[in-house]
Write a structure and sequence with these properties.
The chain is mainly alpha-helical and 330 residues long. Helix 1 (17-43) packs parallel to helix 11 (256-280), helix 3 packs antiparallel against helix 11 (256-280) and helix 5 (123-140) packs antiparallel against helix 7 (169-195). The protein has a three-stranded antiparallel beta sheet. The protein has a two-stranded antiparallel ribbon with strand order 1-2. It has a two-stranded antiparallel sheet with strand order 6-7. The protein starts with 16 loop residues before the first helix and ends in a 10-residue tail after the last strand. The protein has helices spanning 17-43, 45-54, 59-83, 89-118, 123-140, 142-149, 169-195, 200-209, 215-242, 249-252, 256-280, and strands at residues 151-153, 160-162, 283-285, 288-295, 298-305, 310-313, 317-320. It is elongated, with a radius of gyration of 25 Å. It contains eleven helices and seven strands. Helices cover 64% and strands 10% of the residues.
């Protein structure tokens, strides 16, 4: 015997207690993610302004400034999905999927450019990883299938819910793990084999703590480790959730948007810290200009002498001309 629903306008009344708890939990995770994204964007504004002033426009800089705003829009749409009301679930989820694909592509592109920097003289390696990046962008489009097929409206309450799981979604979640792993291995291998830390104990110290490595190489290695460990850990948990049949379809995508946002934040963070650190290393000490330049795929510090000319004019007054230094191609 079925009983009438006391409050038919309350969408949670149409769900079982366990699914309703999962629904509320996903919403709360997205709200926390939204707050963390807003905090990260506002707290990094001074560094972002410095990047705008000191860096020329490039595809990499464009990707940097696109990543977190697209994560923010994606998270807002995810919150709307779980708070409603929504007149068209399919349209909302399709737009959210488009922003998720964009943010994933730009975040992985920032990591890809590290390979291009390290292997700038090896066209085969750079082209292979560029192809892998394109493959990753293609596989991430599997989220569109989930947006169209997996979600339905809860009765007539204008609220959406994920009604069934999709095996295609795991492809979109697995590819970032594989791509980031290959990029991390390639960068680490190149840095350690370039500087040849000896003996073997020193090699492990260089890998774990960056000892015996130049400052820029150490920054590349350690920031890559930070990005890889955090993002890959979260993405592996996100992938594992989709493979647990005992979880409800709603709980299986618990980390879908938080993992995407964390990946974007970490990609922007390591890129920003590396560029700001490079700018801070351009200092003049004792008449010597020390600036990082790229040579044979490596970032090295080159010291250039400063030429200062002093000319005496008239009654002992000096005309100090500005010192100039130029960095030649190495």
């Amino acid at each position: 015997m079925s009983f009438p629903i006391a409050n038919p306008d309350v969408y949670l009344n149409y769900l079982t207690p366990s699914v309703a708890n999962d629904y509320e939990l996903v919403r709360d995770f997205n709200l926390v993610t939204f707050g963390a994204l807003v905090w990260d964007i506002f707290s990094s504004m001074p560094e972002d302004y410095r990047l705008i002033r000191t860096r020329k426009f490039s595809v990499t800089l464009f990707a940097y400034f696109v990543t977190r705003p697209t994560n923010l829009v994606e998270t807002v749409l995810a919150i709307l999905q779980y708070t409603g009301p929504i007149t068209n679930c399919g349209l909302l989820l399709t737009i959210a999927a488009a922003f998720q694909v964009t943010s994933s592509a730009t975040a992985s592109y920032l990591f890809l450019k590290r390979v291009h920097t390290i292997y700038c003289r090896n066209k085969i390696v750079t082209r292979v990883f560029s192809f892998l990046w394109l493959v990753g962008v293609g596989t991430s489009c599997a989220v569109f299938y989930g947006a169209f097929q997996d979600h339905i409206e809860i009765a007539d309450t204008k609220h959406c819910i994920r009604a069934k799981g999709s095996s295609v979604l795991c492809v979109a979640y697995m590819d970032p793990i594989l791509f980031d792993t290959l990029v991390y291995i390639a960068i680490t291998w190149k840095i350690l084999t370039t500087h040849h830390p000896e003996p073997r104990q020193s090699c492990w110290k260089a890998f774990l703590r960056g000892e015996a490595l130049p400052r820029i190489s150490r920054a590349l290695l350690q920031s890559g480790q930070q990005y890889y460990l955090i993002t890959t850990g979260v993405n592996m948990v996100r992938f594992a959730y989709t493979q647990v049949p005992s979880l409800s379809p709603t709980a299986q995508v618990l980390l879908a948007d938080p993992a995407s946002s964390l990946t974007g934040v970490m990609a922007c963070r390591v890129y920003r810290n590396l560029i700001i650190g490079t700018l801070d290393s351009e200092v003049v000490v004792g008449g010597v200009l020390t600036t990082p330049v790229f040579a044979e795929g490596r970032v090295v510090n080159v010291s250039l002498p400063m030429k200062t000319e002093l000319a005496s004019v008239g009654g002992g007054s000096d005309d100090h001309r500005r010192s100039r230094a130029s960095v030649g191609e190495v």
